[in-house]
Design a protein that fits this description.
alpha/beta, Leucine-rich repeat, LRR (right-handed beta-alpha superhelix), eight-stranded antiparallel β-sheet, 13 helices, 64 strands, globular, L-ascorbic acid binding, membrane, LRR_N_plant-typ, oxidoreductase, metal-binding
Length: 953
C-alpha cells in the first residue's frame, strides 16, 4: 500500500526521470508485457503539453477509430441522465450544472476495454487498480457540464481511494461546433488565439477541441498532493452535432480495494511504513504533509513519526525524499560526487534509450565528475557543465551522433549547472520540462537545437536569470513566445528559428538590453515588429524572415547603432522603407534583406548612406521610382538585388563606382535604356540580370566584351533583334550562363556556340531561330541546362544526346526542345549518354519511331514529355526503371500494345497522360495507375479496366 501511494506521488512529480522500459519492468508482469507485444502501443511522441497550471497534456490519436466506435456501441441504449457528487454528503444528485447522459462500463469489460485501461496506465504512470470504471458520456445539442473540480470536497468519497489525482478524457467523436473542454483558470488562456470556429464558451479560458481518438490528461492535485484550483474545467455546450467522450478518473490509492487507515482504540498515532522515521528526519513531514500527516478527514501514513501538533524547525528546501528514495532504489549512487547531481544525471540517462556515441555507457563508477561530457567545479565539486552535443569533432572521431529519448526534468536537480549542451542530437523529443526554468539559477547556456522537441516554450524559462545563450532552433516547438523571455537581462543570444511558433513578438523583447543576436526566422509569427526594437542598443544580428509579420517597418530600426545583419524578408510587411533617416544611422549595417514583402513607395536615396553595406536584397516588393544615384556611394557592396519591383528610369552611371560589386539584378522592372557604359568598369561583376525591362536594346552594347569578370548574363525579354550576338564569343571571361530568351532573335544557332567551352546553362527559347542544331554543340562538355523551346528549329536531335560525352552518364540535367519542328527517330534518345537528365521535354515536334529500350537507363528522370509527336510501337517495359519519375506525358502519339505491368513500380508518379494513342488491353490494376482519372487513358479504344469501364470476359 505504501509503495503504491509513494509511486502515485512520484508520478505527480515533474522531476521523475525513468525510462519506458524501467517503468514497464516495475509495474507489469511478464504475462502483461507479452500481451503488449500484439496490441496498439502508446506513442509518447504524439503527446504535447498544453499547460503547466494546471498540468494538462494532449495525446493525439490515443484511441483508434475502431476503439472509439466500440466504446460508443457498448454505451448506446444504456445511457441515463448524468449525476454530480454533492459537496456535503458525497451522494450522486441531479443538477442543471451537468446536462449530459452517460453510463459506466465494467472494469475489464472486454479485451478492448482492458487494453485501453492498460494504455491509460502506461501514459499516466498510475496503476490500473487506482482508476474508476470508464464512464461513457453523450452530449447532444445544447448539453454541457459547467466548470467544476474532479477532486472531492466531501469525506465519504475521499475514503474510496483518496482524492482523484488525474483525469483522462478521451474523445470518441468529432463535433461540428462547440463541445470544447475549457480550463477557465489556465495560465495560458490569454495566449490561445481563437477564431469564429470556436464557441463563445471556449473563449472564456484555455480550450481543447474534441477530435475523435485524441485524449486529454490533466491533474487535479499538485505534486505535493495539494488540490489544484487551476484544474477547474468544464464542457462547453454542443452547438452543432453531438459529442461522445469517455472519462477515466484515477485516485491516489487503489480504488478496487480501498484501504482503511487503522486507528488504534486508544487514539495513539501510528506509522504505516517502516521508513517513516527516516522520511520524517529528512523533513518529509513538512514537504508532503497530506501523505505523511494527513488531514482532519483522512489520516496520514506517518503520524507517529511526524507527531502532528508539534512545531518543526524550518529546513533548507531539498528534493522530496520520496523522489530521492525512488531513484536510490533504481541506481546505486556512489559517494564520489554530490548525490543530488548524480540523481539528476542518472535520471536524464534513464530517459535516453538510444545513444550512438556510447558516451552515456561511461556513466559508471564512483565519481560522476569523471563521466564523459560532465565538468565539475574545482572548488565546490558540483556539476557545472553537461556537454553532449550531437556533432563531434576530435582527433578520435569526426561526425554526427544521435541520442533518442525524452528530456528529463530531473536535470533540475543539478542546480549548479552553468551549461547544458544537448544540441544536434537529432532524437530528443517531447516537451521542455518547466522545472528547468525553476531549478537552474546559475544556467548561462541552454542548447537543445536540432532535435525533435515539441510543445510550447515554458513560461518558466524567463526565470533563468543568469542565462546568456538560448539555442532552441530546428525543433517542433509551437505556441506563443513567452512574455517572460523579456526578463532575461543577461541574454545575448536567442535562437528560436525553424520551429512552429505563432502569435506576436512579445513587446517585452525590447527589454533585452544585452541581446546581440536574435533569430526567429522560419516560424509562423504574426503582427507587427515591436516599435521599441530600436532600444536594443547592443543588437548586432536580427533575423525575422520567413514569418507572417505585417504592418510597417518601425522607424526605430534606424536607431540600432550596433546592427550588422538585418533580415526581415519573406513576410507581409508594408509601407515605405523608413531608414536610414540620417547619414549617421546604421553605420555598421552590412547585410540587409527586405525581399518578398509588400513594401511600396520610392526607393529611398538615403540607402546610399549605408557605407558598410555589402549585400542588399529588395526583390519582389512594390517599390517605385528610379534607382537613386546615391547608390554609387555603396562602395562596399558586393550584391544588389532590386528585381521584381516597379522601378523606372535609367540605371545611374554612378553604379560604375561600385568596384566590389559581383552580383547586380534589376530584372522584372520598368527600367529603360540605354545601358551606361560605366558598367564595363565593374571589374568584379560576375552576374548581370536585366531581364524583362523596357531596355529595347536591339543590339547588345560592345562594352559587354570589356567587362573583365562577367560570366553570367541574363537579358531575357530585352528587345534584342537579329542574329545571336557574336559579342558573347569575345568576352574576356568564359561565359557560364547565358539567357537570351523571349527576344526577337532570328537565323540559326551559330556554330561558335560550341566554343563557349565552360557554358553550363544556355537559354534561347521563345525566339524565331530556324536552323538545325549545330554539330559543335557536342563540344559543350559541361552543359547542364539547355532550353530551346518555342522556336522553329529543325532536323534531328541526335546531337543533343552526345553533349558531355566525356562523362559516362553525360552532363545534361534539363532539356527542353518542345514546340519546334524537329524530325527523326526517337531512337536517337538512346544513341548518346544522357543518363543524368531529370527533365526531358520534346513535345509538339515531328519525332517518329519507337521509344528505345535504353530510355530505362535514365533513372534520375523526374519529368518526361514526348506528347504530340508521331511515336509508335509498344511502350518499353524499361520505363519502369525510372524510379524517380513524377510526370509522364505520352498523349497524342501512335503507341500500340498494352501498358506494361512494370508501370506499377512508378510509385512517385503524380501526372500520367497516355490518352489518344492506340493502346489496348487491361490497364494494370493497382497504385498508382488506378489513381489517375479516366482522362489519362481516353482516346484508346482498346483499353479497359479501372478507371475505365470493366474488361469484357
Amino acid at each position: 500500500m505504501g509503495f503504491h501511494c509513494l509511486l502515485s506521488l512520484l508520478c505527480l512529480s515533474s522531476i521523475i526521470g525513468l525510462s519506458y522500459s524501467l517503468r514497464l519492468r516495475t509495474w507489469l508482469s511478464d504475462k502483461h508485457e507479452a500481451s503488449l507485444e500484439n496490441e496498439w502501443k502508446f506513442n509518447p511522441t504524439r503527446v504535447r503539453q498544453l499547460s503547466w497550471h494546471p498540468r494538462a497534456f494532449l495525446a493525439e490519436g490515443f484511441l483508434l477509430d475502431e476503439e472509439c466506435d466500440h466504446l460508443v456501441e457498448l454505451a448506446r441504449g444504456k445511457l441515463e441522465k448524468s449525476m454530480v457528487a454533492d459537496n456535503d454528503s458525497g451522494k450522486s444528485i441531479m443538477s442543471e450544472v451537468r446536462t449530459s447522459s452517460g453510463m459506466f462500463l465494467n472494469k475489464g469489460q472486454d479485451e478492448i476495454v482492458s487494453r485501453i485501461e492498460r494504455r491509460i496506465s502506461t501514459w499516466t504512470f498510475l496503476p490500473v487498480e487506482n482508476g474508476e470504471s470508464i464512464q461513457i458520456l453523450r452530449y447532444e445539442n445544447g448539453q454541457k457540464y459547467e466548470p467544476h473540480f474532479d477532486y472531492f470536497h466531501d469525506k465519504a468519497n475521499q475514503e474510496l481511494g483518496g482524492h482523484r489525482v488525474a483525469t483522462v478524457l478521451m474523445y470518441l467523436s468529432n463535433v461540428e461546433k462547440g463541445g470544447e473542454t475549457i480550463f477557465p483558470n489556465s495560465e495560458v488562456s490569454e495566449s490561445q488565439l481563437k477564431d469564429d470556429m470556436w464557441s463563445e464558451c471556449a473563449k472564456k479560458g484555455y480550450a481543447v477541441k474534441p477530435k475523435k481518438g485524441d485524449a486529454l490528461l490533466f491533474f487535479s492535485l499538485h505534486p505535493d498532493a495539494r488540490t489544484d484550483p487551476d484544474s477547474l474545467h468544464g464542457s462547453c455546450p454542443v452547438i452543432e452535432g453531438e459529442k461522445w467522450s469517455a472519462t477515466k478518473w484515477i485516485h491516489v490509492r487503489s480504488f478496487d480495494s480501498p484501504v482503511q487507515h487503522p486507528r488504534p482504540a486508544n487514539g495513539e498515532c501510528v506509522d504505516e511504513d517502516e521508513n517513516c522515521p527516516q522520511w520524517a528526519a529528512t523533513g518529509e513531514c513538512e514537504k508532503n504533509p497530506l501523505y505523511m500527516v494527513g488531514s482532519p478527514e483522512l489520516a496520514g501514513y506517518c503520524r507517529k513519526s511526524c507527531k502532528p501538533g508539534e512545531k518543526k524547525t524550518m529546513r533548507t528546501q531539498q528534493p522530496s525524499m520520496s523522489v530521492l528514495l525512488f531513484f536510490m532504489v533504481l541506481f546505486d549512487l556512489s559517494e564520489g560526487c554530490h548525490p543530488q547531481d548524480s540523481l539528476g544525471l542518472l535520471g536524464f540517462k534513464a530517459k535516453i534509450h538510444v545513444d550512438t556515441s556510447g558516451r552515456l555507457a561511461t556513466w559508471l563508477g564512483q565519481d560522476c565528475c569523471k563521466w564523459q561530457g560532465i565538468t565539475c567545479s574545482g572548488t565546490t565539486g558540483r556539476v557545472t557543465h553537461l556537454n553532449l552535443p550531437g556533432f563531434l569533432s576530435s582527433e578520435e572521431f569526426f561526425g554526427q551522433t544521435r541520442m533518442e529519448g525524452h528530456l528529463s526534468s530531473s536535470l533540475a536537480l543539478v542546480t549548479f549547472l552553468h551549461v547544458i549542451d544537448l544540441g544536434e542530437l537529432l532524437g530528443l523529443y517531447g516537451f521542455i520540462p518547466p522545472d528547468l526554468g525553476h531549478g537552474l539559477p546559475h544556467l548561462q547556456k541552454l542548447s537543445l537545437h536540432r532535435n525533435n522537441i515539441s510543445g510550447p516554450l515554458p513560461d518558466s524559462i524567463g526565470h533563468l536569470s543568469a542565462l546568456q545563450e538560448l539555442n532552441l532552433n530546428d525543433n517542433r516547438l509551437s505556441g506563443s513566445l513567452p512574455f517572460s523571455l523579456g526578463r532575461l537581462a543577461n541574454l545575448n543570444t536567442l535562437n528560436l528559428f525553424s520551429n512552429m511558433f505563432s502569435g506576436t513578438i512579445p513587446t517585452s523583447f525590447s527589454s533585452l538590453k544585452s541581446l546581440q543576436r536574435l533569430d526567429l526566422h522560419g516560424n509562423s509569427l504574426t503582427g507587427n515588429i515591436p516599435d521599441k526594437f530600436g532600444l536594443l542598443e547592443n543588437l548586432e544580428e536580427v533575423d525575422l524572415s520567413n514569418n507572417r509579420l505585417s504592418g510597417k517597418l518601425p522607424l526605430s530600426l534606424g536607431s540600432l547603432a550596433s546592427i550588422k545583419v538585418m533580415y526581415l524578408d519573406s513576410n507581409h510587411l508594408q509601407g515605405e522603407i523608413p531608414f536610414p533617416s540620417g547619414s549617421n544611422q546604421l553605420p555598421f549595417l552590412g547585410f540587409l534583406r527586405l525581399q518578398n514583402n509588400r513594401l511600396s513607395g520610392r526607393m529611398p536615396s538615403s540607402l546610399g548612406n549605408l557605407g558598410s553595406l555589402q549585400r542588399m536584397y529588395l526583390s519582389n516588393n512594390q517599390l517605385t521610382g528610379p534607382i537613386p544615384s546615391s547608390f554609387g556611394n555603396l562602395t562596399s557592396a558586393t550584391e544588389i538585388f532590386l528585381d521584381g519591383n516597379r522601378l523606372s528610369g535609367r540605371i545611374p552611371k554612378t553604379i560604375g563606382r561600385l568596384s566590389s560589386l559581383m552580383f547586380f539584378n534589376a530584372a522584372n522592372n520598368q527600367i529603360e535604356g540605354p545601358l551606361p557604359s560605366e558598367l564595363s568598369s565593374l571589374r568584379n561583376l560576375q552576374t548581370l540580370d536585366l531581364s524583362f525591362n523596357r531596355l529595347n536594346l536591339s543590339l547588345v552594347p560592345d562594352w559587354f566584351a570589356q567587362a573583365p569578370s562577367l560570366c553570367r548574363i541574363y537579358l531575357a525579354g530585352c528587345g534584342i533583334r537579329g542574329a545571336v550576338p557574336d559579342i558573347f564569343r569575345r568576352m574576356k571571361s568564359p561565359i557560364l550562363e547565358l539567357d537570351l530568351s523571349m527576344n526577337h532573335l532570328t537565323g540559326g544557332i551559330p556554330p561558335w556556340v560550341g566554343s563557349l567551352s565552360q557554358l553550363y546553362s544556355l537559354n534561347l527559347s521563345s525566339n524565331s531561330l530556324n536552323s538545325e542544331i549545330p554539330a559543335t554543340i557536342t563540344d559543350l562538355h559541361d552543359l547542364g541546362v539547355l532550353d530551346l523551346h518555342s522556336n522553329k528549329l529543325t532536323g534531328p536531335i541526335n546531337q543533343i544526346f552526345r553533349i558531355g560525352s566525356r562523362f559516362s552518364e553525360g552532363s545534361l540535367t534539363y532539356v527542353d526542345l518542345s514546340d519546334n519542328e524537329f524530325t527523326g527517330g526517337a531512337e536517337e534518345m538512346g544513341g548518346g549518354v544522357q543518363y543524368k537528365v531529370q527533365f526531358l521535354k520534346l513535345s509538339h515536334n515531328f519525332l517518329s519511331g519507337r521509344l528505345p529500350i535504353s530510355v530505362g537507363r535514365m533513372e534520375s528522370m523526374k519529368e518526361l514529355d514526348l506528347s504530340f509527336n508521331k511515336l509508335q510501337l509498344g511502350l518499353p517495359e524499361t520505363v519502369a526503371n525510372m524510379a524517380a519519375l513524377e510526370s509522364l506525358k505520352l498523349q497524342y502519339n501512335r503507341f500500340t500494345g498494352s501498358i506494361p505491368g512494370g508501370f506499377l513500380r512508378l510509385k512517385k508518379l503524380r501526372v500520367l497522360d497516355l490518352s489518344h494513342n492506340l493502346l489496348v488491353g487491361r490497364i494494370p490494376q493497382g497504385k498508382p495507375l488506378t489513381d489517375f482519372p479516366d482522362s489519362s487513358y481516353a482516346g484508346n479504344a482498346g483499353l479497359c479496366g479501372r478507371p475505365l469501364s470493366p474488361c469484357k470476359i
